[in-house]
Design brief:
heterodimer, A: 7-stranded mixed beta sheet, 4-stranded antiparallel beta sheet, globular, B: 112 residues, mainly beta, 6-stranded mixed beta sheet
Chain lengths: 116, 112
């Protein structure tokens, strides 16, 4: 398995532009998490899905952020419009969920977003 | 709400010495606890977990962690540090609804 695949790895955009980050979880994993990492705030959980259904989006900072999981093999995190304070590394992670007994996460390599 | 705290932003240890990275947690039920490591420009990698059973859990790369219920702690340890252990270490707890909450991370520097 190629692991969790995220794209793009790096994105530089201007304030006000739409940004779409993509994630392909490990085949067979039924839970998917989006995290944001910054120096100031550490690793923050934005949203997570179980069996493609959003379970908790309380970590999504504002209405500018949205996430979808149309099927078991794909998820997107969209920011519209983007702002400089959104600059961070965004991680996607997947797991087997409660069925595995321990929810061990496998992380992607991350998408580094810079908003100018 | 569940939470996890890592009281040290940075830990410095001489190569060959034992290391400890501290973690305390707060949960309402039985804790599911984890340690992850992050190397530069990489995603987090799983090191070890505690679900139930022995309080001393062994994981990857010679790391182990000790679960202490009375002190609500889950400290990461290694008997002899390597320079290659230098990285960012995260403690995490599983919430009642399967959320995985991470601490702020501790940067470990192993000095040659």
């Amino acid at each position: 398995d190629a692991g969790v695949i995220q794209s793009p790895r790096h994105e530089v955009t201007e304030m006000g532009q739409e940004v779409t980050l993509r994630c392909k979880p490990i085949s067979g994993h039924n839970s998917l998490f989006w995290y944001r990492q910054t120096m100031m705030r550490g690793l923050e959980l934005l949203i997570y899905f179980n069996n493609n259904v959003p379970i908790d989006d309380s970590g999504m900072p504002e209405d500018r952020f949205s996430a979808k999981m149309p099927n078991a093999s794909f998820s997107t995190l969209k920011i519209q419009p983007s702002e400089p304070r959104d600059s961070a590394v965004y991680f996607c992670a997947s797991s087997l969920g409660r069925s595995s007994g321990a929810n061990v996460l496998t992380f992607g390599a991350g998408s580094r977003l810079t908003v100018l | 709400a569940q939470s996890v705290a890592q009281p040290e932003d940075q830990v410095n240890v001489a190569e060959g010495n034992p290391l400890t990275v501290k973690c305390t947690y707060s949960v309402s039920g039985n804790p599911y606890l984890f340690w992850y490591v992050q190397y530069p420009n990489r995603g987090l990698q799983f090191l070890l977990k505690y679900i139930t059973g022995d309080n001393l859990v062994k994981g990857s790369y010679g790391f182990e962690a000790e679960f202490n219920k009375s002190q609500t702690s889950f400290h990461l340890k290694k008997p002899s540090a390597l320079v290659s252990d230098s990285a960012l270490y995260f403690c995490a707890v599983r919430d009642w609804d399967d959320k995985i909450i991470f601490g702020k991370g501790t940067r470990l520097h192993i000095l040659p």
